[in-house]
Structures are given as C-alpha cells and as structure tokens.
C-alpha cells in the first residue's frame, strides 16, 4: 500500500468504540496516530503526534468532549470530528461554535468514516484558507493606510504602489504589505523638542 490516507487521533473512553474506529480507519487506508480516553490528555496527544484529524467522543469520563475539542481546535488547529450517539440541536450548536467539522454517529457504520473524514479535512483547509485570505486583506489595508499617511497618497495610488512593488519583486502583495508594516514598526520616532 502507498501513502497513508490520514493520521488520526481517537479520544474516546469506550474500548469497543475505539476498536471499531481503529478497524474502520485502517480499512480505509488510514493510520491511528494515538489514542486517549480523557479530554485532559487530548491536547498533549494532538500536539505530540500532530495528526491530520482527530475523532472525539462527546461523553468523556472527565467532562465534555465538545469543550475538549474546542480547546484542541483553538490551541492546536487540528480538525475534529465528533463521535456521538445523539445529535440534539443544542449539541450541534455547541459543536458548531467550537469549530467541529463533522459528526460520526454511534454505532459506527464503517462506510461513513472515510467520506466524513475527507469532508472534515476539506472543510478545515477551506476555513484555514479563508482565515489567511481575510488576514491578508487586513494587512494590505493597514499597509495602504501607512503609505497614504507617509506619502499623502490616495487609496488608489497606495494600492497601485503596493501592487507594482509586488509585481517588480515577484512576491505576493500580502508579503509586501507585511514587510512594509514591519519596516514601519522599526523606524525610530523623530524626537520632538
């Protein structure tokens, strides 16, 4: 067999659930990178093994799997799929707010595992790209503002200068904006007497 499809962490305290997940992951061409049975061990495990994705049970012996998932998503930026026997509107709302990418229902139907993990990974990549695009736009806006202030330029002229500099240097506009903002922050203040 060629490359692994995904490296997965399982966070679930039920041995039968973990056995079912392990078998389905392996059968779909994936690898179990690590397992934990408690929410408090999840972040350390994810940071240590750097999986592509993690599957969290909702009910964990030391608390709520959704809260544990939210903490891992915020800290380690790892996409998470919830493994649950119930999907109440309240659970869906909390999971969505936490940044959970998808659900698998207990008992596991192995045929659902691969499409669910693939979809969750695709959503995660899309979310990351949108976040980077938004951050890039904010940087470009700040750089435009700095140019407008420093040289008394119109917004259009500041944008044109950023774009021309990016093209001349064969760099992305966001890289030029970042460099400009860094240089702005290291320029010493002119002493006022």
- The SS-based structural class is alpha/beta
For the sheet with most strands, the description reads: 5 strands, parallel
Order of helices and strands: EHEHEEEHEHEHHH
- Portion in helices: 55-70%
For the record, the count of structural domains works out to 2
CATH topology of the largest domain: Rossmann fold
List keywords for this structure.
193 residues; Arc Repressor Mutant, subunit A; Rossmann fold; elongated; five-stranded parallel β-sheet; alpha/beta
Write the layout of secondary structure elements.
Elements: E1 7-11, H1 15-27, E2 31-36, H2 39-49, E3 53-57, E4 59-60, E5 63-64, H3 65-76, E6 80-84, H4 89-98, E7 102-105, H5 110-151, H6 155-168, H7 173-186
Parallel strand pairs: 1-2, 1-3, 3-6, 6-7
Antiparallel strand pairs: 4-5
Describe this structure in words.
The chain has two domains: 102 residues, Response regulator (Rossmann fold, 3-Layer(aba) Sandwich); 57 residues, Arc Repressor Mutant, subunit A. 30% of the residues are buried. The chain starts with 6 loop residues before the first strand and ends in a 7-residue tail after the last helix. The longest helix is centred in the last third of the chain and has 42 residues. Strand 6, helix 4 and strand 7 form a beta-alpha-beta unit. By secondary structure, the chain is an alpha/beta fold. It is built from seven helices and seven strands; from the N terminus they run βαβαβββαβαβααα. A five-stranded parallel sheet has the order 2-1-3-6-7, sandwiched between helices. Helix content is 60%, strand content 15%.
